[in-house]
Every structure is written in structure tokens, then in C-alpha cells.
Write a structure and sequence with these properties.
The chain is α/β, with parallel strands linked by helices. Helix content is 41%, strand content 20%.
């Protein structure tokens, strides 16, 4: 009788799960591997999830970024939650494969879509969402716009995604948390790729999850929300922290030397070059033409398609100050 009752209960629960699944769950969802996600163990229960350095696509479910997780006796700490509920489900799969444990905490390093739009998936499963107030303010301002932008590319794989932010954001610009016996330091350094971006440090391991402060082997993007001057200031503060290993926002796990070569030096090039032409009121076309040739960075993925736009955006922002 007990076996029959248990089987009946399991069947009912399974039917309930299928009844509440969004449309993307009924379609063929890619495996984490086919979406370009790879797990890299960093030791002591710390893992990096390395995503594609290409653009957002239907195939990669918008997961063209890096993430991370830390296994603890009390559950898993997830660093960033993905660009949708479907993307969050892929991260959940990777976490369970590596640890056998559930995600208990989610920490957002920023407000670009792949940093936080998967929050709702994990919140619905009981995870606590953690973020600084600065980060949450930008998430709330941009959430609806980000969903609209993702819809064309992700189509039904965006279904079931709703913007969910930390219900009790941290008002301070830095915080030290003890989660499952692991010490995390959350640090706002300066506005970077987006206002309110932070880094998450594991001081005992010398590891930083940089979020979108750092890119390696691909060119960073200066968007309308990006402040290249304060981003460079944030990079200098990361240098002062002297991490042993970095999980960048995009690209492979790296050293500080790698991050300086691919991010810090590029930011300095843009800041110094744009400042000169902005002070001379030379005009954006002149600045772009003068700075377009930068062979020291041409090896970076997306240089040919993004570098000129980066100069233009940086110049126009500087000119507007």
C-alpha cells in the first residue's frame, strides 16, 4: 500500500510540475554544453561557469557570459542567475551535477540581463536573492526594456521570465557576508559597464568574480549606460585588491595581468584618447578616425565590430559632461 501511495503521489507531483512549466520547457531546451556553458572547478568547492564570448542567440539562451557558484554545507551560493528562467534552469542543472545541492543564495554582480533576469526561477525555488541597492535600482529601471530586447532572439525561451530583484537590498556600498560558512565580500567600486556593478570576492581563496568589470580575450563593450572614466577607476581598485585568480564577466578564468592587458589597458587607451579630442572639441568623427587604429587590441574578439562604436559612445558621454 505504501508503495502504491508513494507512486501515486509522485505521479500527481509530476503532473503538477508539467502543468506549471512555461512554454520553453515543452520545447527542446539545449543542454548546458550545447548552449556553450562549461564548468571549471577552482578548488575548495568554488566553480566558474564559462559562457560563450559571442552574442546572445536562441541557441545559447542569452547566456553569453560567465557565472559562478560555491558549494557549502548549507547549500549553494550562485553568482548571477542568467538572462531568463530557461538560462537559470541550465545553471541549476550544472550546479546539481557538480554538487548535488540546491541553490540557496543568488548574488547579483550587476544589472545587465544575464546577471539577474534568472532571479525569479531561483526565488520560486526558495533561494534568497542578494544585491546592493545601487544594483537593484538599475535592475528596476532597465528590466522591462531588457525583456523587450531579448524577446526577438530568445522567443519562447523567454517565457516565464519576470524581473525579480532582491527584496531587501543592501544599502551600503560594501558588505561582508557569511553564507554556509563561506566568507564573501561584496564591493561597489565605481560605475562600470552599468551603474551599480559590483565585484564578489572570496578573500580566503584570493578569488574575485568580477562581473562585467573585466573581459578577457574579447573586447569589452561601452554602451549608453557605461561610464568609461569611472570604469577605469574601478579597474584600478581591482588592481589594488591583487586577486590571485579572477572569474571575469566574459572570457576564460584569468590572472590580474591578463585582465590588465585585455581590459585595464583598453580602458586607459579610450579614456586618454577621448579626453584629448573632447577637450579640443574636435568632434566625434575626428576622435573615431584618430583612435580607430589600435593594433595592440586588434587580437581581441569583436574588435572589428565594436571598437569604433566604443570610441563614439565614450566621446559623446565625455562631451556631454
Amino acid at each position: 500500500m505504501r508503495k502504491i501511495a508513494s507512486g501515486t503521489l509522485f505521479a500527481l507531483l509530476l503532473q503538477l510540475c508539467f502543468a506549471i512549466m512555461p512554454d520553453w520547457a515543452e520545447a527542446t531546451l539545449p543542454t548546458p554544453e550545447s548552449a556553450g556553458l562549461k564548468v571549471e572547478a577552482l578548488g575548495n568547492g568554488v566553480y566558474a561557469v564559462i559562457g560563450s564570448t559571442g552574442g546572445r542567440t536562441y541557441e545559447n539562451v542569452g547566456m553569453n557570459a560567465n557565472f559562478g557558484f560555491i558549494d557549502t554545507p548549507d547549500g549553494v551560493i550562485l553568482i548571477d542567475s542568467g538572462a531568463s528562467s530557461a538560462g537559470a534552469a541550465l545553471l541549476d542543472t550544472l550546479v546539481h551535477r557538480a554538487t548535488g545541492h540546491a541553490v540557496r543564495w543568488v548574488v547579483n554582480t550587476g544589472s545587465q540581463d544575464h546577471r539577474w533576469l534568472g532571479n525569479g526561477y531561483f526565488a520560486a525555488r526558495g533561494a534568497k536573492i542578494i544585491a546592493l541597492q545601487r544594483t537593484v535600482a538599475t535592475e528596476k529601471r532597465l528590466g522591462a526594456q531588457q525583456l523587450e530586447s531579448l524577446r526577438a532572439g530568445l522567443r519562447e525561451r523567454l517565457d516565464g521570465t519576470t524581473p525579480v530583484t532582491a527584496p531587501s537590498p543592501i544599502a551600503a556600498d560594501e558588505a561582508t557576508l557569511k553564507l554556509g560558512g563561506v566568507t564573501l565580500a561584496l564591493n561597489y567600486l565605481a560605475d562600470a559597464h552599468f551603474p551599480g556593478d559590483i565585484v564578489v570576492r572570496l578573500p580566503e581563496q584570493g578569488i574575485i568574480f568580477s562581473g562585467d568589470h573585466l573581459y578577457t580575450r574579447r573586447l569589452l563593450g561601452l554602451l549608453g549606460e557605461s561610464d568609461v572614466v569611472s570604469w577605469l577607476a574601478a579597474f584600478r581598485k581591482i588592481e589594488a585588491l591583487a586577486p590571485a585568480r579572477i572569474v571575469p564577466g566574459h572570457g576564460p578564468v584569468c590572472t590580474l595581468q591578463d585582465a590588465r592587458r585585455d581590459t585595464g589597458d583598453y580602458l586607459a587607451f579610450i579614456v586618454d584618447g577621448v579626453r584629448k579630442y573632447a577637450e579640443e572639441l574636435a568632434g566625434v568623427d575626428t576622435a573615431v578616425s584618430a583612435l580607430a587604429s589600435a593594433p595592440q587590441f586588434s587580437r581581441l574578439e569583436h574588435f572589428d565590430t565594436m571598437h569604433r562604436t566604443n570610441i563614439s559612445n565614450a566621446y559623446l558621454r565625455q562631451e556631454g559632461k
